[in-house]
UniProtKB/TrEMBL annotation:
Record-annotated Major facilitator superfamily (MFS) profile domain positions: 1-373
Localization, UniProt: Cell membrane
Name of this chain's protein: MFS transporter
PANTHER family listed in its UniProt record: CHLORAMPHENICOL EFFLUX PUMP RV0191 (PTHR43124:SF3), PURINE EFFLUX PUMP PBUE (PTHR43124)
Topology of this chain in the membrane: Multi-pass membrane protein
Gene Ontology molecular function, alphabetical: transmembrane transporter activity
Cellular component, GO, one term: plasma membrane
Signal peptide span: none
Keyword line: Cell membrane, Membrane, Transmembrane, Transmembrane helix
Residue ranges of the TM segments: 31-50, 57-75, 115-136, 148-166, 191-213, 225-245, 257-276, 282-303, 315-341, 347-366
Organism per entry: Microbispora triticiradicis
């Protein structure tokens, strides 16, 4: 929950950050892009370390690094210092989710795993709730530095909670290189990676950076209304998660069709908003929030593929590949939106950069689903794709 808060704290403060550092859309997107770049680049190394060291040590390290990053961001007065803070946030964030997923994989039975992972994601989304309206309110009431100082203090809460409450099983050690090669060679891992990339990138770009400016500057909403829409997106995602988790566990043969449906719904909702003449009415933006709310739970199905088709000793690195691919896609979308805004100056053109990724993702999902079904199972009794 605290990691999600740190991750998304830049998104709702984007307009204030641009004013504070005196930068445009492209430079502002660089902050979010650097955070996600580090997050994505750290996925495989962190996955190897989680498989070797266990979740508890990595969670403690991640909480400390994220707190340091927010502290640096709080006192930053220039873009370079702010970028260093976001890099640390991305690094600590990378250590967190893979570690939590491994806890779930180790301690819960396989049939319950999809639902438990979705419930874990729901608890994490409370961090997104706190990063919306409360963070905006604090920023306007108390200013930049006090707001991000108390945000950094949440890292101490995470350290105490993990140190006092988490007990870790000793991980089975496996050669790092062979684990990475084997995980990448498994078609199910790449099916999970493309699932994560195609489903998560739109909602990630929206919540991490461009959603709040789009709603306020592009659609003319008040900051409070925009914050409430972002909060509703999170709450809807929390409601959607258990349903998708239950369905993925009960109907494993239909997981890829669930993913393709989510991609289609998301593309359709964006098409409605972007093609609406002038500013879109609130009800269309509400439909967009509903569509985007399916993205996060849909992306979690990618982790279920990693678990299904990889043995326990390489779950961490397989999860890292899936997560890294998803956030690499999100980073690309964030950067392309920023460039398009500076070149064209309109949000409608900027958000259209998402369509090629959706098309590519859908094609790759179909491709690796076919390859996975044509492969001999590599783990005992895996669920079909």
């Amino acid at each position: 929950m605290i990691a999600v808060f740190h991750r998304q704290s830049l998104g709702v403060t984007g307009i204030d950050a641009a004013t504070r550092f005196g930068v445009g859309s492209t430079a502002l997107s660089t902050l979010a892009m650097l955070q996600l770049l580090v997050y994505a680049a750290m996925q495989i190394p962190v996955g190897v370390l989680v498989d070797r060291l266990g979740s508890r040590r990595m969670l403690l390290a991640g909480a400390a690094v994220m707190a340091l990053g927010q502290l640096l961001f709080a006192v930053s007065a220039d873009l370079v210092t702010a970028a260093a803070g976001r890099v640390l946030v991305g690094c600590g964030d990378a250590m967190t989710f893979i570690s939590v997923i491994r806890v779930v994989n180790v301690w819960f039975p396989p049939r319950r795993n999809p639902l438990i992972v979705q419930l874990t994601g729901i608890l994490g989304q409370f961090g997104a709730v706190v990063s919306a309206v409360p963070l905006i309110t604090s920023l306007h009431a108390y200013g930049w530095t006090p707001t991000f100082l108390w945000a950094a203090g949440l890292g101490g809460v995470a350290l105490v909670a993990v140190g006092a409450g988490l007990r870790d099983r000793r991980p089975e050690r496996a050669p790092a290189a062979s684990g990475v090669r084997a995980a990448w060679a498994e078609p199910g891992t790449r099916l999970g990676m493309w699932t994560h990339a195609a489903t998560s990138s739109s909602a990630a770009a929206f919540t991490l950076l461009w959603g709040y400016p789009f709603l306020v500057q592009g659609q003319g909403l008040s900051p409070r209304t925009a914050g409430m829409l972002l909060t509703s997106l999170t709450l809807l995602a929390m409601a959607c998660g258990p349903l998708l988790g239950h369905l993925a566990g009960r109907f494993p043969l239909r997981r890829s069709w669930m993913v393709l449906t989510i991609i289609g719904i998301t593309a359709g909702a964006w098409t409605l908003v972007l093609l609406w003449p002038g500013r879109a009415p609130v009800w269309t933006l509400g439909l967009l929030m509903v569509a985007l709310a399916t993205n996060g739970p849909g992306a979690v199905i990618g982790f279920d593929y990693a678990r299904t088709f990889n043995p326990a000793e390489r779950i961490g690195v397989a999860t890292g590949i899936v997560n890294g691919g998803g956030f690499a896609a999100s980073m690309s979308v964030i950067a392309l939106i920023g460039v398009a805004l500076d070149l064209r100056g309109g949000y409608h053109w900027a958000f259209a950069v998402q369509y090629p990724l959706w098309l590519l993702g859908a094609v790759q999902i179909m491709r690796y689903r076919a390859r996975r079904r044509a492969s001999a199972p590599l783990t005992p009794a895996p669920a079909p794709a």
